[in-house]
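Recap quiz, item 2
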Amino acid sequence: MSEHAIEPTAASAGHHHIPPHPSVGILLTNFVALMLLLGATVAVAEINLGKGNFIAATAIAATKATLILLFFMNLAYSKPLTRLVACAAFFWLLILFGLSFSDYFARGWLE
Amino acid sequence: MSEAHAFPGPVVHQCDTLDQQRHAGELGMWTFLATEVMFFGGVFLAYTLYRMEHEAAFAEASGKMDLTLGTINTAVLLCSSLTMALAVHAAETARRAMLVACLTATMILGGAFLGIKFTEYYHKYEERLIPFLPPFDYAGPDRDEAAMFFDLYFVMTGIHALHMVIGLGLLAVLLAKAARGGLLGDYSSPVHVSGLYWHFVDIVWVFLFPFLYLIGARQAA
């Protein structure tokens, strides 16, 4: 079964090889920040800001998402290639929204 | 998996180093998550376009959401993300008891989220606000547009809940392995990769919550 068994590498032989990761303190701080932002988004929704409500809610959600991406999902500690793949995911989302909106916004222009 | 039996160390034969193996696993999950971004992106786009077309009707319909339960559920999910992140930390620093405790806590919180979610669904059923389970008893002026809002609500939260169920399945597998003493130190990669999935599902909810429960809802109600 283990015909391709390889020797343990230097990194894995002696001690545990721990990849870069946030400390418990950073994780807890991140959590507190996320809960405060949750409070903020609920509080802001009580105030009538017109279009501003959508902008405020989206901005707070994007901030929360960024905190989760950086510290819970380790992107602040990841290798460049992992970050690139993560950014690509959201870049594709930008294309989806950008091209769709350009269509919807421009629909009335020729009338 | 059965790394311990098939190989003498944590590194599978197609990888040269543990670092390379971890990176490959991480990249694989991120590539999958990129497809998930597109999957959820489609419904978010549909939601945004319909919301722009029928702003008043959507705000009115948003007012029917249970803001208290929605807020509690968001907090529950953020707590589960914390315990998941702590589980990854425990796995990487090879602390078995903490890993088992954190995975268990994450599963309990995930289960609580689904319980609250289905309580909300049941309330909507009692209020007859499920367009695809007629009669649709909506009292407001824009009945058809409100039906569109509720359709989007059930589709978006439904596929999100499905992802939560899959996440709970992953956690159950991790917990079983952790309880037998696995997934520690050099073997912690599955915890990290499953954690990425769990946090991603959390991010989806971070956007669903304000879009469905908050925007315009308080002014219209």
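The radius of gyration of chain A is 22 Å.
The longest helix of chain A spans residues 80-106.
End of item.
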